[in-house]
Design a protein that fits this description.
two-stranded antiparallel sheet, alpha/beta
């Protein structure tokens, strides 16, 4: 066999400082072939290196936080489907005078209200009574007797608006800021920017499913942010993370990991850039650590009987959402940065009274329990709790006893985390059809969430495809009127 020919190649020509001056043909081709792969790999490893600068704990990315944060974590109680503001937190007694009649304001502004022309029914007064609660005198309907007891902890926004009329786009907009394009979820932005306070648990967790016509993969995606910042979706609370329980004893498993580590070390020997491969090796270590800490976090059974009752675990109708709320608290106190707790389905185009009664009963006691539990543990002051859906409902009927979607006015409330307690912000017209004062767009809500977490939304960007992206796109203003 012919002898290998040798080539004299400078280090600078190949762009690799450790390449010897003289290479045989096979080594030279190997180096060059590896270089083509490195072109694509370099970008991935660079992003991972940035994302892991502090080992996954409390990041200092871009000098974050920009200012002193009021909140350390977010719990979003997401009522997917669109709760009716007129039947929950924004009473409109004027509707009773118009019952059975057409509302002129709706006839003139159908497109603004619904996002597209649709037939409008007659005025539909709320089937539920309202009463004032707390020292602040917050109006709450009889649907939420337990939450009403926490009126003085709530900051109610009555003037929310959004752009997306359909559930899929509306949910995407509420979570990512865009109802049209794939963008990172706000929870991904938070964990990317601030990291997590616990390396042994996911920083962004999603409990429960959203509506069937909503693509949860997109809604809770990290999109162009590194994949590790996407939401960890847990739908089966009996086994939240599959295969979490070790198949072998801890000592045996530790020995297996150590053996794998030695093999990986041999594989890495002589390589120049080991950051990417080391990151993948660390994933095995994280999985090992999670077997202990995650098992503890997801096991709420040892909680006291009083705590179980507080969250409604003693009632079959409230147990489902109660378990999620209790798990959200357990994750939050163990360092999770963001937890979304889903509940469906609030989309009552018909049978509004039956649907909203059922839904409110399922969540009212668990949510009140979460607020009480956070407060008694001293966590409410630095935990931002958010309640609401992707849009609201119309003040007129759809069919005979339902309400259609409304993007022009809906209510959400926040608690803890630096917001004004016992405060109401924004107003709607006399029928609850349109926001009139203190109009708040979803971009403004996102800007405020970031602000409370110590982030300036205009300075917090990620470069992708030649453009600097941010959660609020090119919009958004902090809602100063709700800050404590």
């Amino acid at each position: 066999m012919a002898a290998e020919r040798s080539f004299s190649v400078s280090r600078s020509a190949l762009g690799v400082s450790a390449v010897p001056r003289v290479l045989d043909r096979r080594r030279m081709l190997g180096q060059l072939a590896g270089g083509f792969g490195a072109v694509g790999l370099a970008s991935v490893l660079h992003e991972q290196a940035l994302a892991n600068r502090t080992g996954g704990v409390a990041s200092d990315r871009e000098g974050l936080p920009h200012h002193a944060p009021r909140a350390k974590r977010v719990i979003f109680l997401f009522m997917n489907g669109g709760p009716s503001q007129i039947d929950t937190f924004d009473p409109k007694p004027e509707l009773a005078k118009w019952e059975g009649k057409r509302l002129p304001v709706l006839e003139q502004n159908t497109n603004k209200l619904l996002g597209k022309p649709r037939p409008l029914g007659n005025a539909f007064p709320s089937p539920w009574k309202f009463a004032k609660h707390g020292e602040c005198g917050l109006d709450v309907s009889e649907l939420f007797p337990h939450v009403a007891r926490h009126a003085d902890d709530l900051c109610l926004i009555r003037s929310l608006t959004c752009d997306s009329f359909f559930h899929a786009q509306g949910t995407l907009e509420m979570m990512t800021g865009s109802g049209l394009f794939l963008r990172p979820c706000f929870g991904s932005w938070l964990t990317y920017g601030l990291g997590t306070e616990n390396r042994n648990l996911p920083g962004f967790v999603v409990l429960g499913e959203v509506m069937g016509n909503v693509d949860a993969t997109k809604v809770f995606s990290s999109a162009f942010l590194p994949a590790e910042f996407q939401g960890t979706r847990l739908t089966n609370l009996k086994e939240p993370i599959p295969n979490l329980k070790p198949a072998a004893a801890a000592a045996s498993q530790r020995a297996q990991l150590d053996f794998m580590q030695r093999l990986n070390s041999r594989h890495l020997a002589g390589r120049e850039d080991t950051a990417g491969l080391n990151a993948r090796i660390e994933a095995f270590e994280l999985a090992f650590r999670m077997q202990t800490e995650a098992s503890d976090a997801f096991d709420w059974q040892p909680e006291s009987a009083a705590t179980h009752r507080l969250y409604g675990l003693d009632d079959a109708k409230t147990r489902g959402y109660g378990e999620k709320c209790l798990l959200a608290r357990r994750l939050a106190e163990r360092g999770a940065r963001c937890v979304v707790v889903n509940h469906v389905n609030w989309d009552q185009h018909s049978n509004l009274k039956d649907g909203h009664t059922k839904n409110a009963f399922e969540v009212d006691r668990p949510i009140a329990g979460l607020l009480a539990d956070l407060k008694q543990r001293g966590m409410l002051e630095d935990t931002l709790v958010i309640w609401g859906g992707e849009f609201g409902r119309t003040p007129n009927t759809e069919g005979t006893n339902g309400r259609d979607h409304n993007t022009a006015a809906f209510s959400m409330w926040l608690a803890g985390g630096g917001v004004r307690a016992g405060h109401t912000f924004g107003t709607t017209d006399e029928f609850g059809a349109f926001s009139t004062e203190g109009r708040v767009h979803v971009h403004d809500l996102h800007a405020t969430i970031l602000h409370l977490m110590g982030i300036d939304h205009e300075r917090f960007t990620y470069r992708h495809g030649g453009r600097d992206y941010r959660l609020t796109d090119v919009f958004g203003n902090v809602i100063d009127g709700i800050l404590a």
